Structures are given as structure tokens and as C-alpha cells.
Amino acid sequence: MPFRRKPLLDRTIAIYKKLIIEVIMDFGFSEEQELFRREIREFVRKNLSPDRYWGLLDEGETDEDWAFIMSISKKLAEKKWLTLSWPKEYGGLAVSHVQSMIFEQEVGYWGIPGTSMGISGTSWVGPSLMLFGTDEQKETFLPPIAAGDEDGVWCTGYSEPDSGSDLASLQTFAERVGDEYVINGQKVWTSCAHRARWMWLAARTNRDVKKKHHGISLFLVDMQSQGLKVNPLRNFVGQHFFNEVFFDDVKIPAKNLVGVENKGWSQLMTALSFERGLALGASGTMKRMLEELTEFAKESGSIRDPLVRARLADFFMEVEKLSLLGQESVWKAERGDIVIYEPSRDKANMDEILDELSRFGADMLGGYSLVHPMHKNSRWTRLKGMIEQAYYFVMGMAVAGGTTDTQRNIVANFGLKLPRS
Ligand SMILES: Cc1cc2nc3c(=O)[nH]c(=O)nc-3n(C[C@H](O)[C@H](O)[C@H](O)COP(=O)(O)OP(=O)(O)OC[C@H]3O[C@@H](n4cnc5c(N)ncnc54)[C@H](O)[C@@H]3O)c2cc1C
User: Fold this and answer.
1) Has residue 22 got a pLDDT over 60?
2) Ligand 1 atom at minimal distance to the Cα of residue 192
């Protein structure tokens, strides 16, 4: 006689399956969220040319590009999309983490420029000020960011010639003199400093400390201050993206100190975890690259090659995995968890997948991949130059915001609880 499960057991299993599928593992989006996604696509259709993809490091090489980027920031600000997740009192819409995630994925997929207000305005200066800033700082600095104004464009001054991964060894010094701080030193690789109105600066305020992490403070610095000099640093493809910044007795008001003097390190770590949450946008970018490459493979006939098909399928799985990991971080944040190592895990993953995908893409494009990444309008450009751009800039992406090794160290310390290296 065949084995028959009892009806009660069957019902219980069915209820559990329903629970698992519909409650625990429901990765679907609500009608309202899908509507929002469609609204973003409509915005893209109205405001961006289908012939240009604004890449990850594409922020304003020329004045013309910069003006266009700022015009998009303004339009996003009018919809309050620039600061979607910010509280309403600071010019946001206070939407859920899930809705912000949808926005970031669409930004990456369509290459929507102007979403960051320089290199840090919306993503870590604003959110950090909400946590650690004084009321006056919030009232002064948050509205121009949310409004997409030129006055709300920021750069970030962390790295120095001898301090990168080992950021706590930084030497730029801010000395308190009366009701001012006087700053001397040098920053390097400062993205967007030539466009920014303000700098989010990490400086030493005490040299006489037992641990180098102590004695660091965060400041808000007017880029038009006397004694502050910005020198362009062109990257290896000739693009002006980052700069070196010199401070020669630069005076700023003492009220521009963020939080408590000498206790800036923990605030800095919080700001850095905001910076590393880039994987969602990047998974959107890579999804687009993959779709474009698949179309190219179909047109060129290389899709008939089983190796090409297998590689495309592998990348599809990798990108999907990255997107799901990003969603897991969002889900954790939504339920109130403090996410510490997850953004680093996702950034390390992103660096590696983007590296492999851009190499594979360059192989597939063959001679077309030799177009200079800044010559976007060449008649030889294919896939809007996305592949060349990623191929050349992935090395920088893997270093910016902390190298892949630094991210691995964070995962080892905080995810695996291993001792520090
Ligand atoms: C595109 C781009 C934009 C940037 N924008 C900014 C910006 O706006 N503001 C800013 O302040 N900085 C910026 N940076 C600088 C960036 O933050 C630093 O380059 C980065 O932190 C690495 O520092 P470093 O270059 O001094 O390299 P180093 O720290 O000298 O590292 C050299 C190598 O050693 C490895 N290494 C170092 N320490 C360890 C360790 N403990 N364990 C394992 N391996 C290790 C690194 O992984 C790397 O491979 C930018 C960089 C790039 C590429």
C-alpha cells in the first residue's frame, strides 16, 4: 500500500509553504512601489538622451556636462527624489528603505546623473549631519543639498599623500584659536573639489594621543576660504575627476566643527558605511551592461558560441546575487538592525564582478572596446561606451571609498569576528 500523508500534515505543510513564499521570501514589490519605478522611467524618458549613459565616474568633466548634471539635480530636487529617504522636515519624502533601493537601482540602470550633489552631499554629508550636526548646521547645510543648489555641492577630504587605507594616520591639522579653527595640511584624490562649494573634512585636532584614532575631528569647510588651493589631478585617461587640496592657514568658524572635538573617528566610520552602500546602484548598472552585451551578442552572432552563452548566464547569476545581497542589507536596515559589515561585503563583491564583467565585455566588443572612454560620440562607440568606461574606471572604483582589501578586513573583523590584521 502506498504511503499516504495525513490530511492535517498536508494542510500544515501548505500553510508553512505559503508563509515561506508569501511572507518570508516575498521579494516582490507593492503596486505603489512599481508605480514609483514607472515614474522614474518616465523621468528618464523625458530628461535623458537614450544615446548617452552617464557612468559611475562621469561627474562633470566639462562645464557643459556639469551644467547639465546640475539641471538634472534641480529637477530631481523638485520631485524631492534627490533626498527621498530624508525626513520631511529636511526636504525629503521620508520613504522606506525599499523605495530608496528602487530609486538607486533605477539610477544605476539608466545612468541618471546628478543624484549625489557632488561626491557626498546626499549620500553621507546630509545623513551624517542629521545624526551628529547642531541644529544650526542642519538648518544651514541641509536645505541647499535637498534643493539641488550649487551651494549644496560637496566634496570629501579624507585621503592624504601618506594616509589612505590607514586613514587614522592623517596629519592635516586644525588648531583651535579663539572662535576659529586654523587648518594646515594637504588632501589628495579629492573628487569633485573643483566643483564643490563645501568640503566634509577629517583633520587631526590632537597629536598627543595614545591611539591615532583619537584626536581626529570632522569639519565643514567653505571651499572659497582664503588659503585653500585646489589643484587638478588628471587620471590616466586624462579626465579631471579628482584633485589635491592645500590648506595654508585656512580659517573656519569654530561652529563648523561636527560633533565633539577629537571624537570624530566613530562619526567618520558611520559616514564611511553610508559611502560603501553603493552596491545597489552598481547592480543596476551591471544589469544594464549585461542586457546590452546580450543584445550585442545576438546582433554579432557570437551568442551561438556556447562559451559566450555560459559566461552571460554566469554573470546574470552574479549580478542577481549582488542585487539580492544589497536587498538583504536594506531589509535588515528596514527592520532596525545596524548594518556594519554588509555594505563592505557588497562593495567587495561589486568590485570583483564589475572587474570581470568589464573584461568580458571588452573581449566581446573586440576592436570597438579600444575607443577612448572619453570619446563617447565616436562612430566606433558601441553600447554607449559603457564597457570602455567600466573597463578603465573599475580599478578606481575598487579603490574609492576604501580598497577591496579594506572591505575584506571589515568583513573579517565585524562579519567573521576574526582578530584585526
Ligand atoms: C576614483 C577615486 C576617487 C576617490 N575620491 C576620494 C575623495 O573624494 N576623497 C578622499 O578623501 N579620497 C578619495 N579617494 C582616495 C581613496 O579613498 C584612497 O585611494 C584609498 O583609501 C586607498 O588609499 P591609498 O591610495 O593611499 O592606497 P594604500 O592605502 O597605500 O593601499 C595600497 C595597497 O595596499 C593595500 N593595503 C593597504 N593596507 C592594507 C591592509 N591593512 N590590509 C590589506 N591590504 C592593505 C590596499 O588594498 C592597496 O592595494 C579616491 C580614490 C579613487 C581611486
Assistant:
1) no
2) 8
